[in-house]
Amino acid sequence: MKTDKLAVSLFFSRTAEFLGNYLVNQAAKSPCTVRSYRDALTVFRRYVHNEKGLSIAKFSFQDCTREFLLDFMVFLKEKGSSPGTCNQRLTAIKSYLWYCADCDIALQPSALAASHVPFQREPKLNRGTLSGEALAAIFTAPKANRIGRRDQMIMILLYDTAVRLSELTGMLLSDANLAVAEPYVRVRGKGNKDRIVALSDKAAEHLRHYIHAFHGNASSGNTPLFYTVIKGARHRVSPGNIERIINKYADSIRGEFPSLPDKVYPHMFRRTRATNLYQSGVALELVSRILGHSSTETTKIYAAPSIEMLKKAMESANGFMPDEKPIWEGDEDAMARMCGLR
């Protein structure tokens, strides 16, 4: 009995259940989230053992104090981790501790102590978007052949639907619904939440041609929409391959658009689309739904106003301001001097 009680008090005694069951089956977290939490707890475990000299078999919940976690955050920062990475590690530990506290009320003090560890302040970055001219150029950069059509379709769909890279690679042939009045794609988002995203007319037409060229009369809708052939079998195209494709075409137009970032990544298409929708007057709530955000607060990072929007906002509050009149009006001498006369 004493051994069992000791085992339950050990900090890492519930990580397997937390990662393998709770996050997946009860919290319905995506594989990417589960992986990031596993990485965070792994980094913490290595810190406990390698830096503090404590074994998994001895490190308890009581040992995980506020001061212990503050030291861990300092360690991460000194190792070069960004504020965002430090905060992600801390979020995973806090979530794990609250899960343990829900399982055993005696562990609530540990979870509460961890909740008082502050997150690091992250600098607000002005994340880049692609200009309309650069978008048009990168869309037309692929050659007019079979592979070029695939590469072009990947970039068009990333922009038109504003999907995440993982959502694009996860699309199946059956997710494209083109034989309806309003063509759309079904997207499997974070937390296994499906959503429907309408296609523009041009994107739908491109997708029809792509499917005809790459899928023909395929009978199985479970085929990946974008695939690579390995040993005669079709496999989902990898995220790394898509990143390579995008940067190949970005490099090909860089001479014409030297202001392009050194690396153009897939999420930039999503950010550009969201920003363009907002600046075109689409309501933030609708943009949020297209992006698959659970809250408009998340969408606000894409709500960057254009110069035209800012000017309209400024002009709308200028009704009280008088029209400017030349200060020399009615002054014959001043007007003569302006004409170079005396």
UniProtKB/TrEMBL annotation:
> Has keyword DNA-binding?
yes
- Tell me which Gene Ontology terms the entry assigns under biological process: DNA integration; DNA recombination
Q: Which GO terms describe its molecular function?
A: DNA binding
Q: Which keywords does this chain's UniProt record carry?
A: DNA integration, DNA recombination, DNA-binding
Superkingdom per UniProt: Bacteria
Q: Which residues form the Core-binding (CB) domain?
A: 10-101
Every copy of the Tyr recombinase domain together lies at 125-315
InterPro entries associated with the record: CB, DNA_brk_join_enz, Integrase-like_cat_sf, Integrase_catalytic, Integrase_recombinase_N, Integrase_SAM-like_N, Tyrosine_recombinase_XerCD
The entry's family comment says:
Belongs to the 'phage' integrase family.
What does this protein's UniProt record list under function? Site-specific tyrosine recombinase, which acts by catalyzing the cutting and rejoining of the recombining DNA molecules.
Supply the name of the protein.
Integrase
Q: Which organism is it from?
A: Acididesulfobacillus acetoxydans
